[in-house]
Give the backbone structure.
Amino acid sequence: MSDGNEEQFEGQRLEHAANLFDLRRIIGGLFVVLGALLTVMGLFESQKEIDKAAGVNINLYAGLGMLVVGALFLLWAFARPLGTELRMAEEEEEPEGPEPAAAPAGVSSE
């Protein structure tokens, strides 16, 4: 393999690793799983349990809220992947090359 291909492969590998361990995906996934569990529990809640919570089916509402928050986290993570953001930030930090220095005031550049 040439050096260019190796660097490109290494960059893709690092980008994939960054996306794999993106906390937005992990947190979003946990919110979705726990939200789904609470939603199912809320759907099959007895009236006695609802009355204990001041007449509010709190498991259902909390579960639906967690599903929405989890979906937003996952949407954010997939819409703006961490690997792409890191690559763009790295490109911004790299200098484009030295700029020629201007001659001081009063000095002619003959």
